[in-house]
Specification:
Number of strands: 13
Shape: elongated
Structural class: alpha+beta
CATH class of the largest domain: Alpha Beta
Number of helices: 10
Largest sheet: 6 strands, antiparallel
Low-confidence stretches: none
Strand content: 15-25%
Order of helices and strands: HHEEEHEHEEHHHEHEEHEEHEE
Oligomer: single chain
CATH superfamily of the largest domain: Histidine kinase-like ATPase, C-terminal domain
Length: 394
Amino acid sequence: MHQDAPDFSAAIAAVQKIESVPLILEMVKQATGMRFAAVARVTDRHWVTCAVDDSIDFGLIPGSHLELETTICHEIRQNRKPVIFTQASSHPLFSVHHTPQLYGLESYVSIPIVTADGQFFGTLCAIDPAPASFDESTVLKTMGLYAQLIAMNLDLHKDLLASGQALEDAHEVGVLREQFVAVLAHDLRTPLSAVRLSAELLETRVNEPNNLKLIRAVRQSAVRMGVLIEDVLDFARGELGGGIPIKPVVTDTLQEQFEAVLTELRVVHPCAVILDTLSIPTGLNCDPGRLGQLLVNLVDNAITHGAKGEPVVVHIHTVGQSLVLSVHNRGVAIPEAVQPGLFHPFKRPEVGSRKDGLGLGLYIANEICAGHRGTLEVTSNDAHGTEFVATLPC
């Protein structure tokens, strides 16, 4: 193990944020019959583990280092070609290669991970001290696809971080905001749409349950990243002036649209319990798309910060000439001192919360209410839980 290494925490975190990586590693093990699979960051001096699925107690965890020259990945980085063998001891080249001898390996596959800008990130690899039996051509194609999916997600993560930093800089100095919106709309939406459409296409063509599980995880990751991008885009529009655009229409189908949103939320959050009571008349004057976004943001917030196992309760009805939408969750109360700042951008409750998202959901929800000439209020205490109530003249 190498002790004097630079900080690879950003690379490790980027891989760990890809929700489909654990499934990819599981599928690599199933496809090859090997019992160890990993994603490694490989530079000109260092080899470091970013994600691991280990059934042989090889001893590596995320953040572990190997001496670069002892690995085959060192050679893969130089020539950018995959390496595969099922039995090193009988292989004409790898029977005398130092890496299988040093680590006691018989079977091995390693695929380069190359990002869109041509940078070599590292490898997707599988190893085993026992010989393996598989069709090398099929495994190379399958793992090549997985490596491409990882690379695409790394590109999206990098672009999102860069755009977030650009947005903060623009917010501080008050310049380049229009350029940021254009870059965000094109440079992030376009590759993300390609990932989502590819996953949806594969979902219609694949029948094997484990592969379907992986493909659905990729699609759900793309959906989640799409929500983050739209949140940042809405924030940028609001900061440019005029607030978030609202396009009211008279609608007779708002209840059906809310029901569709709740159905999608249950798909995206299969472990959450979402209870709802809807009683919405026809003929309301509002922006149905934005109200759907309002509901998504409030329910996402409740799931993220609420107590696990406790239901999120949604009530939507009319009182007089107003539509009232409330979302309630149990959990640790939001301190009163924190509540006034909840609707500011990049703010998140600190108590009992995970650091998911960008802290824009409640800000955008409040802007949607303001665009409808309405209000968004919060009450939170240990006895009652937390409830957000939107009151919208319609």
